[in-house]
Write a structure and sequence with these properties.
The complex is a heterodimer of chains A (303) and B (153). With 303 residues, chain A is an all-alpha fold. Helix content of chain A is 58%, strand content 0%. Chain A is globular, with a radius of gyration of 20 Å. Classes of the chains: A mainly alpha (303), B mainly alpha (153).
């Protein structure tokens, strides 16, 4: 089963990878042309570095991780469980809701657990919000996605369908990372992920932080109280609360991992150290940013 | 024909009919976006507003990446009538119609609708400059279909 699963994943990856790459190229080209027509430079510095580094390294790591994790964990779990949820016309809506639910919690973990935020914040660290944000791949997300997927597979969901769903969401959100579309109809903004409400997700204003985790739909945000509409009187400030003043990809890659490591080393006692790893960003022990490791102080809210 | 095969055929047919309905709605929404915003007056009445709503593009966006990937792999023809014949032969009439509509909509976006959507949402003052996007969209679409032909060959 694990072999079939890996083959299936590879096939999906190849087809979606090719299709997604063409569509991504399309929107990036459009972004460049529109910037040019608006009298701006073709690329922002952030965008160019994202293209040269993250776009080449990110998918490579993710594909390796995804194949290994799927063959190693999901295949075993699916073989062990006697439960099966068939894939047919009446279970498709169930798969859709379950896939959205899985994405919601995987995404929320990426924001609300510091270890995972160190990875996911790479995607959020751009101060611009345009199609080049799509290039800021998150290299290690498969490892925490599995925390959500494994229980779903254990209760009988077909892992291939979950993988397919996981590939759909970035393909869909390719078109959401832009300020060019603006606000759509209120009911549409309420129900679906749109460029406007996903812009809220990418903003670091206090009102907007840790909101709108949905992949295609906003329903689980409504259920769990994390939905936030874009307010006219609160223009979004894109990026993270500790804005990066560099587009150097190595620094972007490590900008949260390095302080995480320093905080972990400096934290007094194991309880505190575990808090640094698994606690919520901004609410754990933390050294002041820029301070030397060892000068322990309680944290200012970080994210 | 064995019972399980009859049941499988019914499931395929049902899914194909649902896909066809969604594909028709996605095509209508795409056609509306392909026209200048001034044409919106025509769509500003029910049921046209509902039938051409951008909401119908949500499932289509998900399928578009798959369709483009299949085209480049040579597993789906970019010509709607060829895609229809292929799918109808494999999965029946309704699957063929769905393929015809999906491929037609993908083709439309690749050569035209993208630029029209960008123009529609252009910031104030940029509309005139964005007029040139349509030509570039046609060029991009032509390059895409050339690549598909090369890969498929």
């Amino acid at each position: 089963m694990a072999g079939d699963l890996t083959e299936g994943v590879k096939s999906f990856f190849t087809i979606y990878g090719l299709g997604g790459a063409v569509l991504l190229f399309f929107v990036l080209l459009a972004e460049m042309l529109m910037r040019r027509l608006e009298g701006k430079s073709l690329w922002s510095g952030e965008g160019l570095n994202s293209l040269l580094f993250f776009f080449t390294v990110g998918p490579f790591i993710e594909q390796l991780a995804l194949n290994a994790v799927l063959a190693g964990v999901l295949g075993v779990v699916y073989n062990l469980t006697p439960l099966r949820i068939p894939v047919n016309w009446w279970t498709i809506p169930i798969y859709l809701l379950a896939g959205e639910f899985a994405f919601y919690w995987f995404h929320r973990l990426g924001h609300e657990v510091r270890l995972f935020w160190a990875d996911h914040s790479i995607h959020h660290s751009a101060k611009t919000y345009d199609f080049t944000v799509n290039l800021r791949f998150v290299p290690f997300q498969t490892f925490y996605r599995i925390l959500i997927w494994a229980p779903l597979v254990a209760i009988g969901f077909n892992p291939l369908m979950l993988v397919l769903f996981a590939l759909n969401i970035p393909a869909f959100q390719t078109f959401c990372h832009t300020q060019r579309i603006g606000r759509l109809a209120p009911w549409f903004e309420w129900l679906f992920v749109t460029p406007c409400n996903h812009g809220v997700h990418h903003a670091c204003n206090e009102l907007y932080i840790d909101k709108n985790y949905g992949g295609l739909l906003m329903i689980w945000d409504h259920v769990f109280g994390t939905y936030q509409r874009m307010e006219d009187d609160v223009p979004p400030v894109f990026g993270i609360t500790h804005q990066l003043e560099t587009a150097n990809p190595i620094k972007v890659l490590g900008h949260e991992f390095v302080p995480l490591w320093h905080d972990f080393r400096a934290a007094p006692g194991w309880r505190s150290k575990l808090g640094v790893i698994f606690g919520r960003p901004g609410q754990t022990f933390a050294l002041p940013r820029g301070a030397e490791a060892g000068s322990a102080q309680l944290a200012e809210p970080a994210e | 024909m064995p019972n399980w095969q009859n049941r499988r055929n019914r499931v395929v047919e049902t899914l194909s009919i649902v896909a066809t309905v969604l594909a028709i709605l996605a095509l209508l929404a795409s056609l509306r976006l392909s026209l200048p915003p001034t044409a919106d007056r025509f769509f500003a009445r029910q049921p046209l507003t509902l039938l051409t709503s951008a909401a119908w593009l949500v499932p289509y966006i998900v399928v578009m990446g798959l369709a483009v990937g299949l085209m480049i792999k040579g597993q789906l023809s970019p010509w709607p009538q060829e895609a229809m014949a292929d799918f109808a032969g494999r999965w029946g009439k309704w699957a063929g119609i769905a393929a015809l509509l999906v491929v037609g909509t993908v083709d439309l976006w690749m050569v035209w609708t993208g630029a029209m959507a960008a123009r529609r949402f252009a910031p104030v003052g940029s509309e005139a400059a964005f007029g040139r996007l349509q030509l570039l969209n046609v060029v991009f679409g032509a390059i895409f279909f050339l690549l598909v032909a090369l890969f498929a060959a």
